[in-house]
Amino acid sequence: MRSGVPNHVVAKKLGAPLGTVSWWRHEDRKKRGEPSPQRTSDCPRCTGEPVDHEAYSYLLGLYLGDGHIVSRKKQHHLSIFCTASWTGLVDEAEKAMRDVMAHPRVRRRYRNGCVEVKSFTKHWVCLFPQHGPGKKHERAIALEAWQQEIVDAHPWEFLCGLVHSDGCRVTNWTTKVVRGERKRYEYPRYFFTNTSDDIRQLYTDTLDRLGITWTHCTRGGKPFNISVARRADVALMDEHIGPKH
Which of 30, 155, 201, 214 holds its CA 20 to 30 A away from the CA of 238? Predict the structure, then answer.
């Protein structure tokens, strides 16, 4: 290791866990008084580097819907959870993470029909100040001014992230009697479901800015569902979002 052989090569050669080899290297440096190398960060908030606004707006929507951040002393990562059958969504989530910050390690974890896309760096808390203890629907969620500017500039990407996480495009049907004959009619609509009043407000405020008509779809006395069903609005959302894939 002192000659510069990478940790993963040493781990493979010795048949030892990569984490163990990393610890050996750390302890060896500490005994010799050698400082650990500083990790390079490409966090836009810390370095002042420009951020991919389109990718960030989409990733923000994913995070508010099905994401969370683990930020502890020895573990820091952003996780986005996706249904395993939506392989395109899994790819988009990973791409957005890499487009926002390319340096952190990204991997996928498969379990019980779900894919957890994880990106490892403590700097995700810089980009998502909504992170905090407890569940998102049990605490206040509000965008900071710089985040709102990005969402205002790229509203469709933000809506796409929210729909891809906590929304869906479905086909509803109804029947009507026409000239004495009952006929079946089908029509598409978009749903967004989230128990956080604040996150639903962010969704509907963005719809309002785009001129899209929406309604509450209350179930069991709980207004957790937002519906977009007007034909022109559905067509517009199909153009920019479309069904999950």
Answer: 201
State the angle between helix axes of 155-166 and 145-153 in degrees (0 to 180), rounded to the nearest 10.
100
Q: The domain at 165-240 falls in which architecture?
A: Roll (3.10)
Coil, strand or helix at 175: strand
Sign of the dihedral defined by the CA atoms of residues 86, 223, 157, 190, in that order? positive
CA distance 44 to 41: 9
CATH 3.40.50.970 is held by the domain 44-141: no
Sheet arrangement for strand 215-219: 167-178, 181-193, 222-228, 215-219
Dist. CA 86–CA 116, nearest whole Å:
12
Confidence of residue 145 (pLDDT cuts 50, 70, 90): very high
Provide the residue type at 101 as one letter.
M
Q: CB–CB of 216/223 below 8 Å? A: yes
The structure's pTM equals 0.82
Classified as helix, coil or strand, 5 is coil
Of 122 and 6, the one with more pLDDT = 122
CB 130 within 8 A of CB 202: no
User: What's residue 39's pLDDT?
Assistant: 60
